[in-house]
Write a structure and sequence with these properties.
By secondary structure, this protein is of the alpha+beta class. It contains five helices and eight strands, in the order ααββββββββααα. Helix 1 packs across helix 2 and helix 3 (114-123) packs across helix 4 (125-158). The chain is globular and about 70 Å long. It starts with a helix and ends with a helix.
Length: 172
């Protein structure tokens, strides 16, 4: 895949369909196409990532452990991502990854490093602002999920406990 193919691929994704031609060209020019073997770790839960990655082909496993699993209740602790999926978006804000992303099989990715993301602001401000919007949406999702989890935990802690029956306490 070359830059022109990447541009066509980006245009086919809903997140990028509203980009101007100039913005899409700048984004594609700043992204780097890379191939990774099965088992390669892209992000580690709790650590800041180096880039945002978009799956061009192949599959990625996302594993979340502990509290991070509550950030994605629709997928639970594990999730499989395929073509068009984006991981590492939080790296633009220096926020630790909420999951460990591992290549499930041979994967081709388009990556955008923090440095290239910052360069995008001078080359195509519209594209950079759209990426900021995508980041803001993701952060809002994370905050809403965390808020629900904290409210549920508080409710569970303050809810009156049902006492066991006398027979159950005596006889197990």
């Amino acid at each position: 895949m070359n830059t022109a193919d990447l541009r066509r691929f980006l245009r086919s994704l809903p997140a990028f369909e509203r980009f101007s031609e100039r913005s899409l060209d700048a984004l594609a020019a700043n992204m780097h196409l890379e191939n990774y073997p099965a088992g390669h770790i892209l992000t580690v839960q709790g650590q800041c990532g180096a880039a945002m990655y978009m799956v061009i082909s192949g599959r990625i496993d996302v594993a979340r452990v502990g509290v991070a699993a509550t950030f994605s209740p629709e997928h639970g602790e594990n999730q499989e991502l395929a073509e068009g999926a984006i991981v590492g978006l939080l790296s633009f804000a220096n926020i630790p990854s909420l999951g460990t992303c591992t290549c499930k099989d041979d994967v081709q990715l388009a990556s955008l490093s923090r440095e290239d993301y910052e360069a995008l602001f001078s080359q195509a401000p519209g594209a950079a602002h759209q990426m900021q919007y995508m980041l803001a949406v993701r952060l809002a999702q994370v905050l809403q999920t965390q808020n629900r989890s904290l409210r549920q935990a508080l409710h569970n802690k303050t809810a009156p406990k049902k006492s066991e029956s006398l027979l159950k306490r005596w006889f197990g």
